[in-house]
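hey so i finally got around to running both of the ones u sent me last week. sorry it took forever, my laptop kept dying halfway thru and i had to restart like 3 times lol. anyway pasting them below in the order u listed, first the sequence line then the structure token line for each. didnt double check formatting much so if smth looks off just lmk and ill redo it

first one:
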Amino acid sequence: MAWFVLVLAGLLEVVWAYSMKLSDGFSRLGPSLVTLAGLAASFALLSWSMRSLPLGTAYTVWTGIGAVGAFVIGITVLGESASPLRLLAAGLILGGLVLMKLSHAM
């Protein structure tokens, strides 16, 4: 259950990061409120998952999901560059997440 909650926390990190972009420096109320609610929920779920997962594993997976998710949203929704080096960097982050999960199982 902790892994499911951690993944959900990471997905909420993507939500609040994207909403923060849409908030235009917190000058737009709707996206600003989504940012704050997503941030609070993401932190709460991360905290809950840390009850049974090691700090290093939980935090790395949480930030990794957020980083790769924000990268994907940036490319698919915001039209950001999908250069080979950026794609390689995202792939390396994903590889690190897989290794972190596998290391926890050992």
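and the second one:
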Amino acid sequence: MIRTARHGDLHLITLDRPGRRNAVDGPMAEALADAVGAAERDDAVRAIVLTGAGGAFCAGNDLKAMAAGDFPVPTVDGPPPMAVTRTPPAKPVIAAVEGYCFGGGFELALWADLRVASTTAEFGTLNLAQGLPCLDAATVRLPRLVGQGRALDILLTARRVPAEEAHACGLVDRLTGPGEALERALELAAAVARLPVEARNAARRSVLEQWSLPEDEAARNEARLALRP
């Protein structure tokens, strides 16, 4: 259900459950966490690309599996349904999105640093229309990407957001033709991987850590990260 492959210093993780539009059940969430953890521990890996098989990224959490009690009971301190989304990834992650990117799958794409999507992609928190809350940080990461107003538009309507709109509002970083998202994501990941690691990582961490800090402290944190021996 999770496939991995190496492309030089890039680590490709594929959600591979096309019969369910790559909807994630409990074992698949655990396998995803294992795959991400292995890539983060491997010093030869410079960037991670996350995609889905069969023309879809991820339709969200598997509702049948949830009804059967396949997921752990959600708690404030426990792991979220997608298992990896509670904290930012340790290495840059680029999501390559074709087709459905809904619910927990949308939250998984938001967890990535960058998103490359084809014109076939659709995004949204369709889970809210089923009375299922966001538990993988969509309500945190989406406003930081697109602003509070646009985020509330997407969240409170639980509508499908087409790729062109997602690109226009900053949710998608690169827009491609149908079937081209993975190729373009690997190209983008290769560009990220070519940068000197120390300076790149310091810049990335400064961006990720600034949100809870006043501007002057965020600037000092940037310097601390940049000058760390």
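quick thing i noticed on the 2nd:
The chain has two domains: 2-193, 196-227.
anyway thats it, ttyl
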